[in-house]
Amino acid sequence: MAGQMFQNVPTSISLAIWGTAFVQGRETLERAVDCLSDAPRTVSTILGIENLAIFLSQLRKNGCVALRAHFPVTGNMDSIIGTDQFVDSAIELGHIVTTFGGEILGIHEEANHWVATNRLKEPVALVNSWQDMDKQLSNLLHETSEEIEAFDLVHDNQEAHDFLIDLEHDISIQVYPDDQPSRVTFLLGRLLRVLAITEFALENEINSFSATKQSMWSTPISDLNRTCRQGLSAVVNYGLVGKN
Length: 244
What we know:
Elements: H1 11-23, H2 29-34, E1 42-45, E2 48-51, H3 52-61, E3 66-70, H4 85-93, E4 96-100, E5 105-109, E6 114-118, H5 130-151, H6 158-172, H7 182-205, H8 211-236
Parallel strand pairs: 1-6
Antiparallel strand pairs: 1-2, 3-4, 4-5, 5-6
Helix pairs in contact: 5-7, 5-8, 6-7, 7-8
């Protein structure tokens, strides 16, 4: 599979946003942990299993200034560097977290806990702000709207219909910090919806068309898919602006 469809809002989004709000002093530890989406509350470290609250407190004490979410896929690692097991997990999940400032850690989710892994190199710095990606996404959505509509992915496709309903429900129940810009919240939902639609198109629909139609539609939809992933990285990590 070229990408990764998220049937629910990835837990890395919630951990990155709330973890960053806490280590930056914008939210209390109790609220940050309580308001996390359906995510583990324990972390496996080299010292053993820790409570998430203790883990986050230690991160801030050791100089961490942000938790950064990544959305890697094969061929586009979203700034993750390396060839180890953490990278393999990142590709399999399609979403992971790294720390910025202090000790460099990679954090990914397993069955019922987070796993924190020491990293040798920091991820490559963010290139675009969330405002940059907001404009780029709007332009691409306008240019690609006809191609997306041509697939009519939900009509007569029960799998797509059910998938998008589940995603929409999970988007609607997310809770975010009080000082998060409303446009960021809007864009998170929009990006996840469009990403799901483009994944359906790339994985299922395009392959059923002729070579001519594929050449006409696959490139703009692939571009939109890539922009959605880049957009998620920029938008989720709005708290990193000015720090890298």
